[in-house]
Amino acid sequence: MSVTEYDVIIIGAGVAGLTAGAWLSGQGLKVALVTAGEPTACLSTGCIDVCATDDDPLQGIAHLPHEHPFHLVPAGTIRQALDDFQQIMAAMNMPYTGGLENNRRVLSAIGTFKTTCLTPVTMQASPQNENETIHIITFAGLKDFYPGYIISRFKNASFSTYDAGASTTMGIAANFEDDAFLEAFILWLENQHVREDKIAVPAVLGLESAAAIIKQIEYRLERPVFEIPTIPPSMPGRRLFNGLKDHFRRKGGMIYWGWSVVGVEKTGRQIEAVMAESQGRPNSLNARAFILATGSFVGGGLEAKRDTIMEKVFHLPVFMPGEREAWFDQDYFSMNHGIGRAGIAVDSSFRPVGCPWDNIFVCGAILAHTEALKNGCGHGFAIATGQAAAKSCLEHLP
Amino acid sequence: MKYEHCIRCTICVENCPVFRVNPAFPGPKQAGPDAQRFRSNREKSADEWVLLCSQCKRCEMACPCGVEPAQIILRAQQKYGLEHPHSAAHLLFANNYYLSTLGSLTAPLANRFAATKIGKKIFQHMGIATYIPFPKFSFKTLRGTMKSRSRETRKVAFFYGCFINFYRPDIGRKIIRMLQSFKIDVVLPPQWCCGLPALGNGNLALARSFAGKNVASLSNYVDAGYDIVYTCTSCGLCLLHDYQGIMEIPGAKKIAENSYDLHEYVLKLIAEGELKPQFREVNRTLAYHIPCHLRALEIGYPAANLMQLIPGLTCRILDDNCCGLNGSYGFKKVNEVTALQLGGRAVSLIKKTGAEAIVADCGSCRMQLAGLSGMDAFDPAEILCESLGIKDKK
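The joint structure predicted for all components is written out below.
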């Protein structure tokens, strides 16, 4: 029994789920999104990794193994989905720079470089090699950021420390939303008489106004300023999540928090409703179609048992990379752990292979053969498959 | 209480409003699952900072792993409360129900006293913040004004809650009129404070005594075929979660299974085809501030679904920010700065939407946001009544 009927229900509030939900809402459908908690996107750097195996991300995708789900997304859809994403985030005052023509590099908190495709505008000026001269700002008491790591790799880098009256990324970012705090920070920075070409700051420059804040600092200091992503709590990840979430809402989508799906209602080859855990009556929501975007192991979509791997919502058949011995490589830091290929195998309509129901579509990190770490296909893959699965869903809507 | 399931991802920390502004609070991860490993029943609590948690439950809604940091902290708060003497403010707010009963009986006097300089001085001396005016007691409570009727087949027992009863009986009367206009019979069962204020002030025994009386009373109505409808989201959290959970009241499961948020109930009747309300145009642009405890009820935002049906109404949902008051939390002097900073941020984001007024299900959210912004703040039920042409008649 359900109290509300939707056209489509999305399960999972990550980048893939929010992308699919917003796209379907934009087509005039009534869409709800249910989620057990907040997504791992909040823990990410906020960068949009499309495919990092080649300088040209599209070339990289072309050379992925033939079973990789990226091959199910037409090149036009990949381009369209990423263009849409950039427009959405620009409208949310959190613009992204870069494009599908080539990958770019982002300086990490330990002084290494990460390859990605689109970056938040706050990381636009991130250096592309160790020879650039940078001045790093850190904050008194901030445990999660040591400029020494970067300085040990950069010949021309120095740092200074600002006391922000808070010692956590979240607390400092909240302070930056205050105009008086920002002004005091800028005055202090002007007094440091920075000689280097660029100024680096851990990613704490505000919550929703980061783009405007960095612009103001750049204007006053007359040189590029960029953010360095930190370990979680990661502000760029949170900004990304907030932007996509608000966009989905503005398109008319409804979000149900604390909705851990514990059961489904089905008739014949159709799923009718999903049920959530509740301490009162069972809560259930009806829809004509469902999009599964619950992520992989960390996101909570997959669960590894001793000798099997489960998909937690619909108990769909899961592709497993052989017996348990084949799941892992002897080398801990290897990129070839078989477990990275586990997930849901889908056909060209993004419906699970061997699934007894016709109205489930799957997108994002839960797809089999993704190997996100090895191939560097993260949020970009989620955005592309999110839109592709949504299109297929609309086409096949019962 | 599954603190072992915590993977230390810090998503709860990102969602904690208190952590964001008060460095003295170590955040839900540390105060909850991390510290839980070191707590022992045989040792006296030393972690006074657990009292800084406002119990907004945002950490629980955000946690991807099903850990309940706020619940772990709530239990630590009760243990702390049991072992330490209570401050005047804690005692007063825990007994809010008795205090309000007295306040309503002497409303003309009590309201005037609370607004005087001397009154405010005395409050501050007791550790009570006065940055926003206290809500005004209503001389006529809801309980005192309504008579029950019994003609219709669908019957509702209305758990109106202290805020409506003592401060805003007019909203209560409108809700009753609205339900009656839907051909629903409404009665006001004997009821006491839900117990949440006592729980929030570390007084589990008092909370349990209120809860026990409520469960006994409401249970009779459920047996007689009534649906329980609540409108205060914090009362709802007690009825659904805390009576069965931390308070361990026998028979509470039955109450949880038969209790509905007002808007959830109306939506259900519409979905079942029993009700076709004729919503008329309301030309307003509203900012819908989602109370933390509505999120925590895990029923979605039913009032938002309903307001979508009203022609002419534009309603922007804002659910990222706690208003900061948290019932009696912000009224304590020690939490005043936290409450003001959080309230200020919530108000600035509301003002950015360009909305003409605020709407929120929770009375204390409305009090805080209206007090800090100078804007009007409505209960969603007031907007529904406006659209349905239902007015308050005394």
